[in-house]
């Protein structure tokens, strides 16, 4: 489908128009360009003369080499083009190159170089760089934690309309980072970002509704926001909504709907979704063929209200300690938010596996003595089901109470790497 008013959009992008650049990056991330639009862009890039248009032509060319649009993916060429655009003063190229340095996306993590480029971009008013540098202050990357410096940069960026900064500042209010917990202000900023289409804000606000943070539990509103984020491709929303289906939160249990969402998120690379699918497959594969009456008599039958009332209620004081604790001296070995989640998942997996083994053995011995083979089978699967559920719930809460803010590639609220 052709991009509306493409020639006008391209002209605005080559002249540094921020809203146009935001649209452009969204199209780039989804590879929405037609063959004719790609040809038109390449012709304009090649025809760009020195000055402003040349710097943005280099920047667009770098982006497309990075994403493999109109050419094969070529990170080395992308870096060369970014550097050329930086030499012409392009703040968006500075931000993107800084991001590569910060995460070692070019194979060499260089925090000082990242900070230098972020600061150069900030001096030129780049809100994405403000957001990314604020995050470094918040988590002590490249120095000590400095909540006040983080807040100053987030507020500077959000006052210029940066929805990522609104979302992250709201998150700090929610957890009481750099000040007291302030749910009303967190909600106000989340809602402001949501009104501008930020899916991370939708997920964070939905989570507050789901677990009654700042107000009473509101499943319908949580579902509405998760569904809106899902429609925009947010995998975290897919996983959270799937868990609501799986554990009867806000409606009847619907394992098929849960699986469909887990599969959708899994195809997009979400680790929690992949683990959930493995757990479900394990349970289905190892489910014993026990007589129906034995299952009802001996299996651990958790009533619906048990699942709902025992869903993880996150205490306010524990939220911050569950988030990524990054010390300055350990920054070089500190994974990004998603890697931190993976580490937590691995730990949870070990705990769950050990728990399943221990409880299954105990149930097996007990039921073998009292109920025969059917009791053995039922006890083993019952323990596996219970502990698998606990493990996934624990990792789900960790993911939703840790920072899942995305660093800003240029002017948009999404990126291939994560903070």
TrEMBL record:
Region (Disordered): 309-334
Transmembrane segments: 342-366, 373-398
Keyword match Isomerase: no
UniProt keywords, alphabetically: Membrane, Transmembrane, Transmembrane helix
Pfam families: Sel1
Listed name of the protein: Sel1 repeat family protein
Organism: Legionella maioricensis
Lineage: Bacteria, Pseudomonadati, Pseudomonadota, Gammaproteobacteria, Legionellales
């Amino acid at each position: 489908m052709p991009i509306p008013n493409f020639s006008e959009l391209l002209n605005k992008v080559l002249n540094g128009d921020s809203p146009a650049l935001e649209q452009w990056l969204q199209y780039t991330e989804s590879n929405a360009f037609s063959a004719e639009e790609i040809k038109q862009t390449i012709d304009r890039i090649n025809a760009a003369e020195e000055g402003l248009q040349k710097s943005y032509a280099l920047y667009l060319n770098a982006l497309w080499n990075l994403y493999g649009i109109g050419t094969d993916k070529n990170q080395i060429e992308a870096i060369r083009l970014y550097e050329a655009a930086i030499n012409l003063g392009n703040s968006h190229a500075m931000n993107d190159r800084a991001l590569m340095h910060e995460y070692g996306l070019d194979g060499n993590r260089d925090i000082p170089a990242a900070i230098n480029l972020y600061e150069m971009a900030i001096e030129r008013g780049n809100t994405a760089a403000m957001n990314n540098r604020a995050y470094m202050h918040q988590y002590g990357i490249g120095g000590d934690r400095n909540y006040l410096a983080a807040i100053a940069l987030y507020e500077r960026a959000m006052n210029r309309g940066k929805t990522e900064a609104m979302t992250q500042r709201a998150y700090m209010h929610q957890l009481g980072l750099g000040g007291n917990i302030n749910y009303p202000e967190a909600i106000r900023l989340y809602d402001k970002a949501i009104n501008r289409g930020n899916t991370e804000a939708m997920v964070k606000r939905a989570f507050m509704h789901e677990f009654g943070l700042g107000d009473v539990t509101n499943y319908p509103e949580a579902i509405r926001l998760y569904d809106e984020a899902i429609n925009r491709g947010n995998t975290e929303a897919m996983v959270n909504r799937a868990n609501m289906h799986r554990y009867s939160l806000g409606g009847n249990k619907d394992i098929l709907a849960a699986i469909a969402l887990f599969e959708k998120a899994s195809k997009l690379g979400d680790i929690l979704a992949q683990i959930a699918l493995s757990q479900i497959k394990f349970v289905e594969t190892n489910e014993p063929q026990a007589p129906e009456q034995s299952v009802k008599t001996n299996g651990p039958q958790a009533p619906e209200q048990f699942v709902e009332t025992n869903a993880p209620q996150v205490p306010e004081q524990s939220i911050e300690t569950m988030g990524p604790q990054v010390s300055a001296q350990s920054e070089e070995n500190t994974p990004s938010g998603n890697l931190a989640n993976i580490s937590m998942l691995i730990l949870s997996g070990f705990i769950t596996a050990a728990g399943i083994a221990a409880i299954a053995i105990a149930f097996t011995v007990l039921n073998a003595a009292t109920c025969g083979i059917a009791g053995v089978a039922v006890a083993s699967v019952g323990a596996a089901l219970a502990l698998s559920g606990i493990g996934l719930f624990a990792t789900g809460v960790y993911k939703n109470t840790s920072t899942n803010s995305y660093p800003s590639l240029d002017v948009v609220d999404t990126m291939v790497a994560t903070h």
